[in-house]
Hints:
Low-confidence stretches of chain A: none
CATH superfamily of the largest domain in chain A: P-loop containing nucleotide triphosphate hydrolases
Number of domains of chain B: 2
CATH topology of the largest domain in chain A: Rossmann fold
Distance between the termini of chain B: 58 Å
CATH architecture of the largest domain in chain B: 3-Layer(aba) Sandwich
Structural class of chain A: alpha/beta
Number of strands of chain A: 20
Strand order of the largest sheet of chain B: 2-1-3-4-5-11
Oligomer: heterotetramer
Amino acid sequence: MHDDVILEIRNVSKSFSGVQVLSGINMRVRKGEVHVVVGENGAGKSTLMKIISGVYQKDGGELLFEGKPIEVKSIRQMQEMGISIIHQEFNLLPNRTIAQNIFLGREPVKKRGIPVIDIEEMNAKSRELLGFLGLNVDPRTRVSSLGIAQQQMIEVAKALSFKSKVLIMDEPTATLTRNEISKLFEIIRKLKNEGVSIIYISHRLEELKEIADTISVLRDGALVGTLDAKEATTDKIIKMMVGREITNQYHREFCTEVGEEVLRIDNLSSYRFKNVSLKVHRGEIVGISGLVGAGRTELIKAIFGFDRFESGEVVLFGKKYRRLNTSMTTRLKVGLVPEDRKDEGVIVEMPIRENIVHASLSQLFKNGILNKKTETETANKYVKELGIVTNSIDKHVMYLSGGNQQKVVVAKWLCAQCDLILFDEPTRGIDVGAREEIYEIMNALVKQGKAVLMISSDMPELLGLCDRIYVMKDGRITQEFSHSEATQEKLLACSI
Amino acid sequence: MKRIALLLLVAVMIAALVGCAQPAEQPAQSEAPAAPAAETKAPEATQAPAATEAPASEEPESQYKYPGAVGKKATMILKDLTNPVWLEAREGGLAAAEEFGMDLEVVAPIESNNNEEQIALVQQVIAQKKDILIMCPADSTGIVPAIEEVNAANIPVINLNTKINTDSGTVHYETFVVADNTICGTLCAEELVRLAGEEGEAVILEGPSGGQVTIDLSNAAQAVFKKYPNIKLVDIQNAKFDRATAFNTTQNLLQAHPNLKIIFSCNDEMALGAVEALKEAGKLDQVVVGGIDGNQDALKAIKEGTMEVTVYKNFWLQAYTAVEAAAKFLDGQKLDEKILVELEAVTPANVDKYLKN
Amino acid sequence: MKQKKLNFQNREKLGLVIGIVVLFIIMSILAEGFFSWYNIHNLLRDSSILLVVATGMTLVILLGKIDMSAGSVMSLTAIVTTILLANGAHVVVALLAGLASGALIGLLNGYLVGIQKLDHFVTTFATMSLAKGLALVICDGDIINTGNNDFKAIGASTSVFLGLHVHIWIVAAIFAVMLFVLTKTKFGYRVYSIGGSEQAAMLAGISTRGTYILSFLISGLTASVGGILLASKANNGNATIGDGFEFSAIATVIIGGTPFDGGRGGLVGTLIGAILISLLKNGLRFLNITPSLQYVIIGLVILVVIITDVIINERRKLEELRRVEQ
Amino acid sequence: MSKVSGFILKQSKIILLVVIVVVASIFANNPIENIFTVIMSQATFMLIYCLGMTLAILTGGLDLSVGSVAAFSSYIGATLIIEGYVVPGIIVALAIGAGIGAINGLLISKVKLSPFIATYGMDWLVRGLVLFILAGKKIFGFSPAFTSISKGAVVEFTSTMKISNPFVIALVIFLVLLFLMRKTTFGRNVYCVGLNASATRITGVNTDRIITIIYTISGLLAAIAGLLYAAVLDCAEPNMGTHYGLMAIAATLVGGTAITGGKGGVGNTIIGVLIMVFLTNALAVLGVSHLWQEAVFGLVIIFAALMEKARQKQIALLQM
Lengths: 496, 357, 326, 320
């Protein structure tokens, strides 16, 4: 590994409407290295990356690319210069083909006056890239007919197609499963050897050691420090990130004798899962492990009555149901903390207060008439209880950080006095601090004799929390483990 | 999937067919006892020959008056078939057709007074190779190109109610059966002026701007008002031929012109809207209101004295006359280039003649 | 994969095409004089005007927007063109001026939506009143006779070229160009991208402003062309000429399988939709169905076709989801 | 952003309204009477069907069928009323209005049609039915029992200055809706549906039912408006209300209810309606040619939209 710096960041700072989000960041990215950037949500990682990739304009400081200072004007400019980014959330057009997505915005044109697109060339190039990524699908396939993992790979292909010298990956593994991740890492190594530098953002500390050469830690918009991967330990990094020691994040006392059964499903089937049966009892946290696209989310949404199932039955609190809808399940005091927080969890354009009481309107206001006082009191209670960071409960949820938004979602169900709460990837894209608080809430719930059913792709999380873990694969449940017998290896083994 | 689509579409087609089976007669039935039945009395009362023969035609094997026209296919294109007065016209036309043994089809645009649709209807006549076209244009000039086509196809044209603009000299029609709007407008306006004692402020309520009827009537009225130095035309407003709109517009006008004397309205609908507004404002006695068409409710209003004058257009007779003219022409008889259908202003004096009980 | 994909797109259209065929056969049997080149030619001519307006509308709807001002733009163009002709302007000048007026409204829409980021419906709804109002003011509520034979020639049914009316050729040309632009050029790709996901497009460095402005501009222009053709047919200008036309155009596009959410569908569907609607209206006329009943039937057809389309799409989504598992 | 400009933004529509009213009053020969007539009759009738439209727009949809529904229901009702069955007639009319509204609602919520196309198709269908069933005949000469509903007054200062019945009816409807939307869980959920339907559904709200109810109300209000017009004009005719739909949308938008749903409310619509009617009134009183009306409407809508945008921006800043 040679020492020439390709990208240097000199005390770059940025603020949004008076709020300082980045202050004097200094960072040097060497050629052909994997430079990992870690930090809690709101630490400014994404903002920094967006500045580098030209999405935002920086307020102060300067960027040097290959030694020369550069003025970032547009995304396009940076892409052409050789800096490109894979964003955390997908930016694919479902109704367009793979090729059209890869070359979105810079389709190859035939040499002529009017910009006529050279479709053949576009497809050919795409086929090349897909080959490089070991994906054998026709580039003329509509993206909507691809699985999540494949779509993530398309994002990678998109970034590669720029012939980038610096490739920024913002939480690329968030939606990937173990074996997909290792595939991605292979590709990263390949790129490394071709001299491409990679800036890699992640929450999953356990991944880092595999690929990182250098690790920079951000906290509250400032650089805490940069260290060589070799001398970095997880605990050390976490300490730098949160500035406090985290010994055991989970604090779970596993329940000794289970309470009555709250949920049982028998041979539930739909187009995404087949003959699934499982049980959840009071006082238990039950986990569902498995690859993304194994049908876990669909299953949990069917149980909740959001999607309909084709055959089988759901038994909630001892009553059988062949058809369910969300109003029934919520009336039975079941809650769902969905994967897609912004679009399904909260109503971002509504105040925190209204979001928190939303699920319990009918309980709080029996006669159907609202009462602001009750609302405010209730909301305040939960804001305090869950430590939601805000200056006012009338603030629109969209102005909260991911962690706090998630807490609002949870508060909504706590407020509704749910006996069974279904969590779908409860800690995705949430910083370590908030994570721990969410775990606390789950613990508290089951202590009160309520029940939790959770989906997670983060195995340590499952192992740390769950009394029992079901593993799903291709829409079927392949195994059930008690927490004592479960290990990462076993879980993995049954999910692939 | 495609099967579903197909089935649904077929279903609609069937609906269409069922539909087309009825409407030919349906409205006729729903109409017959209603307006026209009574309307037929009107011509009986006024000009004998035309209508007294209508019943005669009922008894079988009566000698047809114009042998040459018997069995000939004719189409009458009107401006609208969703409005009572035009439904009267249809009845008049059909009655005549029956009497003269002609095969008449009465059509109109979906959206009333839509010139483009009328053009399409005219072209349909050519496509169906009809023997004669009776044309009541929604747009005097807009229809010209289409009529040229008809001329080119050697299908004779009888012009009805609204004149086909012949200034360009490129089109010609056999005759113009007219109870024309300019005359209506003049009659009504003159009567209003008389009632107002030839002095005072006047306003005109127009239909949708750009409509032919509106333009003819409004211009006629304006011309009349100009003739009298003491009549002051203070405003022209568009009330969309709609009663409710006229109601509001009139209220506003009364605010602007408190001592208004005359309201000339381009149809009875608006006139009646104005009347309601005047009732509310308690200015019914101060203002004289005139409308056009002679709808039954307008006639009733005149009887009650809330409205002063309307012009009974006798659409029944207009259409009847037009078809008769067509028959004459097909029978090889010579036609004068203008056939006037007698019009008169309806006032409390003569309202009973038109009012059905 | 590719096979499947084509299948879906075909399926969406197939129902309509079959519908058209069935309708055509039924009419030919029932309606005397319907099945004649003369009538079919006129039918195409009528549909061409609807099509040209719907073409621009398709672009806007592919972007996930609507252009409510199309109908009023037709009226405005008609008035501007004819009033100039009436005052002895040369036909070319008049036509250009007419198109310019449409372009102007189009640009205003584009500016307000693309740059001011106003809601597209609100904007075009406002410009709808605005354009109509201007038309009324300019013509002073009167019908304007051009008395110009060059202009009349554009619309005269005698002006036929290679067996087809000039209108059809004009619209065919515009349609062909737009089809090419939409499927083969950068701009076309942008329209689909932005319609599919504005965010994704922006992150890919696509400037949405330009695309919005250009699309609304085109929509304005096509509406203008529609207005001119309509006016040339009557050889006069009338401020009510385009009333409600925007609704017909929108219905045409939606029936053609381009949904309001954008990014999906295309011009081929619009073509089919335009033919279906014109055929339906023409047929109902020939069957001499009373206007009132025609209202009912047209309403039914719109609902039925859209419902079918919705069902088809639901199924397609399901099948795609299923396929993910394989 | 200074306090003043902030205030202006916040109250832009009211300011606009005041200006218009003042102008109208200056040129009207009897301002008080003018304002009275405009509010008591013109605004009143319009408000009723605009409120329905507002509800539909709040759920993120719109209802293009209000005009034909008003015509159809009042028309069918009238056929009974003219025979002397006043109350049954009214009930039938309201039932029809609500019924068609419900169908709209189901098409939109269950069949998942876009509100635009669903109500547009319905508009054609219903308009056709009303024209077809009675072949365009008008019904008039109602008994006072019916006409008095619109013509009567609660308090009568002078023949022209009075608190008219329709005004009271509209006011009651308005207050009920205001309460419903602002103070009840139902209303809260309507806003939620407008802002984010799927999140609302996950929260356990039966969104389909809410949408259906809303369109039912919209149809019902259209029917009421139709009946009141029929009563005041002493005539039910099939071509009634062809322009209600567009007018209602315009008024709602001018009032500042967002077409995307979830923002605004019936309160805004009152302002919107008043602006529209007084604008018409002012133009007429000023003797401006009616030809200008359309154009002016267009400008006012754009103005209102720009103001609303600026206001939203300001709110966002405060929230940050």
